[in-house]
């Protein structure tokens, strides 16, 4: 940004000569963003990671757009309707241009959908097109998508379906050639707001404005996205003036930054909610009496014990002290306002005495001992919340050994069902309940493709029934009711105990720019406006 | 001399072969990347597909043979995470690391040897004691702590220098260097100091110890008795005598600095291979880990080999004794 | 005068080294008796309160006493946490140093004594390892073995035994060349005697020097690994972990969480290194006038 001041007089001079051009467009506007994570490749179909999609959104567009609050809006498709039980019709936007000047049409969509299973990396993007059986082109701006049965959530699946140019990417659509074609820029031709300039893995992604963008011209002429995974370094870079805006300000710095006049902070709700999960198997490995002897039964199968744990958790303290204000108490596994969140679920009350009484009633007057597991390096505050939980549970008599471990240790072990009590951040990235409840609350059943994330053997037939019905109901209002009910029933069972919803903070140079924080925490240059 | 070179060369090749097996088996036998690389929620089909794609369904020996075969052709495989050839990934970041390491080690050596010789030459002076105190500190204080303090002081509180990143680079023979631009230079100062401090302390100690020993030897006593001036003694005898251990250590330290760059690069977000390897360990990106370790081993073998050769040139006794 | 007394009287001459020794002894004593001295057991969850979290030095918390050095993000009394952290750091340093010393010395002496193929094999491996940076080895091992005290010590030992082996080998080898050992080797019964009575004592002085350096190194390496997120579990923080946990708070002015453990760590390592330096100088025959 330093040289901007030098360029300004010249730019003004040119502006004066040109006469009619508005000054704001003449100034060399450069935006440097310091972001925590970056893309793994510039092939948008390679990875389903959030930071990957975030970077891709600068260069490419998605068929369906996910708005600031994750509710679906028109993107490259302007409207979509189910024509029968297993067919959706998509109308495409007219007059959209690719960066190379060619026209966007149905051929590109078909090409992109069919390309995904071929080039997807290990963090697979095939989840976005898993329901698609066949793509039928009706005319250049109309598509029929045939699915393998009623696919109510198909439009939600498509919010990360990036459309690449079928011409430019033609020769770069095998696992061997994709990365080379896209990382070099040869195939990196999208319809998005910015054009590829250069990219270094784990380094800088440099972009320049695409003047014919269908949403209109972006505010920044040049955008550099610098990957800076270390929270402190990122903040230091902002304070030192190296970057204009950073994402994921750590909660420890938030209060101090708020009173710093050189920096603006922008706070937004996150999709991530921390849930405590209690194993429901008859025999659970990490629970024992305080003297180390085996318990007669898994205490977490006792409703009273689960209620006691819920009552032992002081959510306010968790937010105010542990997260230093950067969060909200949570009573369900999705943020309010999402498709399927239930406003009638009460906020559990903190009552340590009630917790002790309930434990005594359940026959655990002396408490018991449990190993609590969580990640320490995945989401902001995960390790600290976990340690806070340890204190709160220990205070009511459940001796809790906290193991805040690296995600490289946690996820494999969690997948092997080695834990009895664990805390997991869950983000409802699609903005609707079938993703969250279908994955977590349904009994694990590969036949219906639900319950794959249910690592605690939670099973409630009523919930299962509602979720299966919801998945095949194409009427949105009826579906919403089913998910709201399923959410209420799941939370009432208290095998999943939601604790806090995280909040995310961006920081920018004072007076440099404004934007609306997004629920999915994406940092998108196009939607950032210079503050006049 | 030729026999000596061939002998050392064969040894180096042996070492590399052994290293490749150890590193490969070490990295591959423990830690299953599949749970990290694919999302925790992937279905069984996707999981198996990923395992097959990454070649993890093959027995270990077969994986090694494939790997070794590819290695012979200069192919280190593809990163699990980035799906690009590992060599390209590492190669793109190597200049940044090499630049940082070379600047650090060179400045540490030049400064360290001068200070150390002075401290050894006048062991009781006030300045020498200060130098030694600084060197003990530099030797003891963990480098990550120094890095944190440097950032806090010069980048955050004083705002003089950037806290991280590499800054502008200039292409020289197609390789980007940052110390040639003012912006780049300002970025390299803090990490270079951070990385050099430990080496500086080491060089001071080494030079001081060498100087003290040599100043007490008969050679110097005779030289003084013969009326040779102190300046000549320092130049002719002292520097020549301490140069052997210094060269050795310089060579060896070049390698270990490369390793320590891992810490410095992490703190200063320096886009070099050290940061890459830390990230790769975090996601168990095996091909990158293996390639990095093998390249480091190769570098070490190369450095040792070179040091041996230089030694042999300086000191004929070693050449003679080599076949013992 | 016995050699030990002579050693001591010489050591005393260097005031700085003497002070450093006193500091080391004091720190070790503080660490040993930490449970008796500290106002709080920082590892007992029931004794902690989140209400006391991140309080500045001097704050009187829910325990009714002043937190002289403030508290950490979990409401731990920092003074207590530092003393307990010192315990862990010293434990790890000693354990890793001790095991590495034993294995290294055994391998080094064996190589020197046995000669031939065994010597070549052992020393080749040792040299190979020496040429490989300890921190990288430890880093990779810890990453692969997982977190925990045992794994960490294992990684540190693997990273450091080679220094001891090299040192023991060098000292033993020079003694081994002497004629009396050749002669002693001719009588088969005395192998043990030769090793224990002649080779080992000869290796002891240099091994002590290396041991002091390596213990300090282990402590520092442990702290570095913890800082990189590859160290011990957070619930029983070592000094490195305390520093690393506290670092994010530096920018927001809550320096004490990271700075005080850092100072404790540096004092310990500097003191050990000064003592080590003095011992090294005293053992170095070439510096004797």
Automatic annotation (TrEMBL), chain A:
| GO-annotated biological processes | peptide transport
GO CC terms in record:
ATP-binding cassette (ABC) transporter complex; outer membrane-bounded periplasmic space
InterPro entries this protein is in? Peptide/Ni-bd, SBP_5, SBP_5_CS, SBP_5_dom
Entry annotated with the keyword Transport: yes
Keyword Transport in the entry? The reply is: yes
- Kindly indicate where the leader peptide sits in this chain: 1-24
Tell me which domain of life the UniProt entry assigns to the organism this sequence originates from: Bacteria
Q: What single Pfam family name could you report for this chain, choosing any that match?
A: SBP_bac_5
Subcellular location as annotated: Periplasm
Keywords attached to this entry: Signal, Transport
This protein's major location comes to: periplasm
Q: Which molecular-function annotations from GO does this UniProt entry contain? A: peptide transmembrane transporter activity
Q: Where is the Solute-binding protein family domain?
A: 71-445
- What family is reported? Belongs to the bacterial solute-binding protein 5 family.
User: What is the recorded name of this protein?
Assistant: ABC transporter substrate-binding protein
UniProtKB/TrEMBL annotation, chain B:
Q: Which residues form the signal peptide?
A: none
Tell me the CDD domains matching this sequence: TM_PBP2 (cd06261)
Q: How does it sit in the membrane?
A: Multi-pass membrane protein
Alphabetical list of InterPro entries matching this protein: BPD_transp_1_N (IPR045621), MetI-like (IPR000515), MetI-like_sf (IPR035906)
Q: Give its localization.
A: Cell membrane
Q: Which family does it belong to?
A: Belongs to the binding-protein-dependent transport system permease family.
Report what the protein is called: ABC transporter permease
Automatic annotation (TrEMBL), chain C:
Query: Which Pfam families does this chain map to?
Result: BPD_transp_1, OppC_N
GO BP: transmembrane transport
TM region positions:
16-37, 88-113, 125-146, 152-169, 255-276
Compartments (UniProt record): Cell membrane
InterPro entries linked to this entry: BP-dependent_transpt_permease, MetI-like, MetI-like_sf, OppC_N
Any GO CC annotation of this UniProt entry? plasma membrane
User: Organism's domain of life?
Assistant: Bacteria
Q: How does the record say this protein sits in the membrane?
A: Multi-pass membrane protein
Question: Signal peptide position in this chain?
Answer: none
Q: Where is the ABC transmembrane type-1 domain?
A: 86-276
Q: Does the keyword Nucleotide-binding apply?
A: no
Tell me the keywords, alphabetical order: Cell membrane, Membrane, Transmembrane, Transmembrane helix, Transport
Q: Which family does it belong to?
A: Belongs to the binding-protein-dependent transport system permease family.
Read off the PANTHER family from this record. ABC TRANSPORTER PERMEASE PROTEIN, OLIGOPEPTIDE TRANSPORT SYSTEM PERMEASE PROTEIN APPC
The identity of this protein, by name, is ABC transporter permease
| Source organism per UniProt | Primorskyibacter flagellatus
């Amino acid at each position: 940004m330093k040289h901007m001041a030098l360029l300004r007089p010249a730019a003004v001079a040119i502006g004066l000569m040109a006469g009619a051009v508005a000054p704001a467009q003449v100034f060399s506007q450069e935006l440097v963003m310091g972001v925590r994570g970056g893309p793994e490749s510039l092939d948008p179909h390679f990875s389903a990671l959030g930071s990957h999609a975030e970077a891709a959104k600068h260069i490419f567009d998605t068929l369906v757009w996910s708005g600031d609050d994750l509710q679906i809006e028109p993107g490259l498709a302007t409207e979509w309707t189910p024509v029968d039980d297993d067919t959706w019709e998509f109308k495409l936007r007219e007059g959209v241009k690719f960066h190379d000047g060619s026209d966007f049409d149905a051929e590109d969509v078909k090409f992109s959908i069919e390309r995904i299973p071929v080039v997807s990396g290990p963090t697979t993007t095939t989840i976005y097109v898993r329901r698609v059986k066949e793509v039928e082109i009706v005319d250049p701006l109309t598509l029929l998508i045939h699915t393998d049965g009623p696919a109510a959530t198909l439009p939600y699946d498509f919010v990360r379906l990036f459309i690449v140019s079928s011409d430019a990417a033609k020769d770069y659509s095998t696992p061997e050639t994709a990365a080379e074609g896209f990382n070099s820029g040869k195939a990196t031709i999208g319809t998005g707001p910015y054009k590829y300039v250069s990219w270094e893995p784990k380094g800088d992604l440099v972009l320049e404005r695409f003047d014919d963008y269908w949403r209109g011209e972006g505010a920044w002429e040049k955008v550099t996205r610098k990957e800076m995974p270390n929270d402190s370094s990122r903040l230091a870079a902002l304070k030192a003036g190296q970057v204009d805006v950073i994402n994921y300000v750590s909660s420890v710095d938030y209060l101090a930054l708020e009173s710093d006049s050189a920096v603006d902070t922008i706070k937004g709700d996150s999709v991530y909610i921390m849930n405590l999960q209690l194993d429901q198997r008859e025999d659970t490995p990490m629970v024992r009496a305080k003297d180390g002897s085996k318990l007669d039964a898994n205490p977490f199968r006792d409703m009273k014990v689960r209620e006691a744990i819920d009552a032992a958790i002081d959510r306010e303290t968790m937010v105010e002290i542990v997260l230093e204000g950067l969060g909200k108490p949570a009573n369900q596994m999705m943020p309010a306002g999402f498709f399927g969140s239930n406003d009638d679920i009460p906020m559990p009350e903190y009552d340590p005495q009630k917790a002790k009484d309930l434990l005594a009633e359940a026959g655990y007057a002396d408490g018991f001992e449990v190993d609590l597991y969580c990640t320490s390096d995945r989401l902001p505050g995960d390790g600290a919340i976990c340690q806070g939980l340890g204190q709160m549970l220990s205070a009511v008599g459940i001796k809790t050994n906290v193991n805040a471990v690296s995600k490289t240790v946690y996820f494999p072990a969690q997948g092997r069902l080695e834990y009895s009590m664990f805390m997991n951040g869950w983000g409802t990235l699609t903005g609707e309940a079938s993703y969250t409840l279908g994955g977590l609350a349904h009994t694990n059943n590969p036949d219906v493709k639900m319950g794959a994330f249910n690592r605690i053997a939670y099973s409630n037939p009523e919930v299962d029934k509602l979720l299966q019905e919801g998945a095949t109901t194409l009427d949105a209002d009826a579906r919403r009711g089913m998910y709201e009910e399923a959410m209420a029933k799941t939370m009432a069972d208290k095998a999943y105990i939601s604790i806090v919803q995280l909040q995310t903070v961006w920081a920018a140079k004072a007076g440099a720019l404004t934007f609306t924080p997004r629920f999915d925490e994406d940092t998108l240059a196009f939607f950032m406006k210079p503050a006049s | 001399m030729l026999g000596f070179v061939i002998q050392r060369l064969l040894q180096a090749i042996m070492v590399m072969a052994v290293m490749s097996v150890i590193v490969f088996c070490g990295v591959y036998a423990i830690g299953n990347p599949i749970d990290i690389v694919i999302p925790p929620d992937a279905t069984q089909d996707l999981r198996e597909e990923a395992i097959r794609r990454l070649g993890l369904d093959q027995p270990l020996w077969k994986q090694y043979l494939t790997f070794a075969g590819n290695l012979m052709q200069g192919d280190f495989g593809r990163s699990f995470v980035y799906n690009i050839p590992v060599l390209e990934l590492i190669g793109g970041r190597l200049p940044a690391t090499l630049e940082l390491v070379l600047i650090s080690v060179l400045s540490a050596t030049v400064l360290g040897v001068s200070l150390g010789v002075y401290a050894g030459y006048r062991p009781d002076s006030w300045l020498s004691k200060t130098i030694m105190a600084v060197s003990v500190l530099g030797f003891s204080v963990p480098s990550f702590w120094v890095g944190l303090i440097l950032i806090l002081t010069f980048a955050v509180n004083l705002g003089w220098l950037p806290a991280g990143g590499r800054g502008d680079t200039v292409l020289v023979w197609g390789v980007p260097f940052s110390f040639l631009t003012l912006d780049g230079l300002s970025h390299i100062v803090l990490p270079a100091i951070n990385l050099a401090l430990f080496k500086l302390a080491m060089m001071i100690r080494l030079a001081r110890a060498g100087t003290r020993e040599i100043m007490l030897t008969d050679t110097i006593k005779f030289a003084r008795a013969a009326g040779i001036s102190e300046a000549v003694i320092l130049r002719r005898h002292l520097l020549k005598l301490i140069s052997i251990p210094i060269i050795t250590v310089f060579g060896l330290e070049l390698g270990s600095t490369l390793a320590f760059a891992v810490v410095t690069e992490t703190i200063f977000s320096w886009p070099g291979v050290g940061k890459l390897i830390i990230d790769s360990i975090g996601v168990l990106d095996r091909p990158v880990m293996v390639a990095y370790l093998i390249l480091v081993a190769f570098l070490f073998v190369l450095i040792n080999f070179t040091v041996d050769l230089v030694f042999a040139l300086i000191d004929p006794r070693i050449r003679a004794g080599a076949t013992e | 005068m016995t050699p030990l007394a002579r050693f001591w009287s010489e050591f005393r001459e260097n005031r700085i080294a003497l002070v450093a020794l006193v500091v080391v002894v004091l720190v070790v004593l503080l660490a040993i008796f930490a449970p008796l001295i500290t106002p709080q057991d920082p590892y007992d969850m029931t004794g902690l309160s989140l209400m006391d979290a991140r309080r500045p030095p001097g704050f009187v918390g829910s325990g009714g006493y002043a937190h002289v050095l403030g508290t950490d993000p979990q409401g731990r009394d920092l003074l207590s946490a530092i003393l307990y952290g010192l315990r862990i750091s010293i434990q790890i340093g000693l354990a890793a140093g001790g095991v590495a010393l034993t294995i290294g010395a055994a391998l080094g002496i064996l190589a020197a004594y046995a000669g031939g193929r065994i010597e070549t094999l052992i020393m080749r491996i040792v040299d190979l390892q020496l040429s490989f940076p300890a921190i990288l080895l430890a880093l990779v091992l810890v990453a692969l073995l997982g977190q925990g005290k045992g794994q960490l010590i294992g990684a540190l030992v693997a990273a450091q035994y080679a220094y001891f082996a090299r040192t023991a080998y060098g000292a033993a080898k020079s003694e081994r060349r002497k004629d009396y050992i050749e002669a002693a080797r001719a009588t088969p019964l005395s192998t043990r005697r030769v090793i224990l009575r002649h080779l080992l004592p000869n290796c002891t002085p240099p091994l002590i020097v290396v041991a002091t350096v390596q213990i300090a190194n282990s402590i520092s390496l442990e702290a570095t690994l913890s800082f990189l997120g590859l160290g011990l579990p957070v619930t029983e923080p070592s000094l490195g972990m305390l520093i690393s946990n506290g670092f994010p708070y530096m920018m927001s002015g809550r320096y004490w969480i990271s700075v005080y453990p850092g100072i404790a760590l540096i004092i310990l390592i500097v003191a050990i290194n000064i003592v080590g330096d003095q011992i090294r100088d005293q053992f170095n025959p070439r510096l004797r006038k």
